[in-house]
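Supplementary notes for students who missed Thursday's class. We covered one full example, reproduced here. Read the sequence, then the structure, then the short commentary at the end.
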Amino acid sequence: MLAWILVGLLAIYGAVETVRRLRLAAQLAAAQAQLTEAAMRDELTALLNPAAFQAQVDHKAQRVKQSGGSFCVLYVGLDNFERLNDGFGESVGDALLLEAARRIATAKGIEMEACRMFGSEYALLVSGGDALGTGMAKSILAKLAEPFDTQGLNTRLSGSVGIAVYPEHGAPEKIVGHAAVAMRSVKAGGGNDFCVYDPQMGMEIREQVKLVNDLRAAIAQHQLQLYFQPKIDAATLQVTAAEALLRWHHPQRGFVSPVVFIPLAERHGLIGDIGRWVIDEACRHAGKWREKGLRMRVAVNISGYQMREDDLVDRIEAALARNRLQPGRFTCEITESVAMEDTKVTRQTFERMRRAGLHVSIDDFGTGYSSLAALRKLPAAEMKVDRAFVCDLEDSEDARIIVSSILHMAKALNLRVVAEGVETAGQCDLLVKMGCNELQGYLFSKPVPGDEIQRLAIEGLGFGGAGFSDSLFQPTNLAKL
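Structure (token representation):
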């Protein structure tokens, strides 16, 4: 009897132990599944990570091979996200990335796989051809265009979307990269749009990579050069200042337009080195002019990247001191869009410019969204009317109204106005009658090397009938240098 009891107890114990082991195995399997799932997800957005996304692409490609059909990869890049992230900090940036991920992943409400690739870039995998892909792209852009209200920041984002279709646009291991190439092609064109991959895009990207490498060499090998375009006083038609303009003479390609290489420099982290060189070189030329008795203000374009550098004003002051120049003879030309950013960093930079006594000009005015309240806060001494309005001045009543309005606004704010892109005598006459202060453009002179400016001044010559103002040759109090 006792033996049967022992057998029964052992059987019960064995059953309990089996249940315990099965439960433990299930718990271990669940934990392993959670770890595996976590390893497949982006930590911030919980979307798939790149490795997991590529695995989904490979799986989808196998199904297409077996059953036919097609699928799209959409590669989405947020435009100008880095500027917001730098200006407002990583916590705001992360919140924007999280909200953008949510909008992108739910843009169309259809079944798809979503991934955060790198930084502010995402990818989507959806069944169907390019018609479905373009519809998705439009939906994503519309979602991104809706205002973002994040941690007290109300802003808008735009995106660039590249579309690649399998099997039409390449093997599974290349399809994501091809969508990314299409996205970068959109960004290069200004962003806020979409396009379908074309093999020609890959060639364009390779050409850009070569040009970027050449640009790096150009900085090191001193291939860059500054030219200067004079600014003409509208009342006296005499030269009063000059704007420094960057030129690149490539050994094989010849002249490369700044319109081509400046955006490349900004996208590939070269604009900082170039900007520092421009400041030093412009001050060096102005120092040479001063030694010859020509004390002329020099203007330099300051990029948005430079405005966010903590030591920008320190470096300008150091360059001025090395060349014995007064701060008031150095103009910082800052585009209207950059001036209106109103981030903490740019506000601090403007304040440092004011304290240093630098001359500040708002460039390309009329192309942005300035307000009187915002302009009043800036330490600006002048604004430049964008050439787009000047070129239409003789033929367009709208252009004349806009320029007249800018001049009235400037007068109310006690700002001087420079009109750039003046090419005809008719434009010149209209601008003088309207009360413009300074003129700049091909009517008077194309940009010329710094040594040519010096020669024309010393020999008493000028540009297109515009001589140098006598005030530029008056002795300067050395105590002010």
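Commentary. The chain has 18 helices and 19 strands. The domain at 50-198 is CATH 3.30.70.270 (Alpha-Beta Plaits). If anything here is unclear, bring it to office hours.
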